[in-house]
Amino acid sequence: MRDHEGNKTGARLPGARAPARRRCDAVAACRTFGAMQRVLLVYPRFPVTYWGFQRALRIIGKRATLPPLGLVTIAALLPDHWPMRLVDLNVADLREADLAWADIVLTGGMLVQVPSLLEVIR
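Now predict its structure.
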């Protein structure tokens, strides 16, 4: 096939460099990111406020209003072979065993969650 100028599609122009090829497997990821890491993702607690809907959650039978989508997105970007755990402090407490298990602890949230976030960091 040729493009609108008559060049073969996929052909490189004279002097152009070939694109770098990337290996996408566990061995390459370990070389890039180091050895396998156990990752603990911690989502901070929301304070009890009108906007937190904590009272309404009991009525509808739910335990949290907002899923930790930011942390789940980060988890999707990490190497697939790294074991991960997610602890949502709005649903369950953070246990010492979780912290002892982890090589890396990642957390993040919104401004209203800063007090809980600081507890996690300490």
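The longest helix spans residues 69-77.
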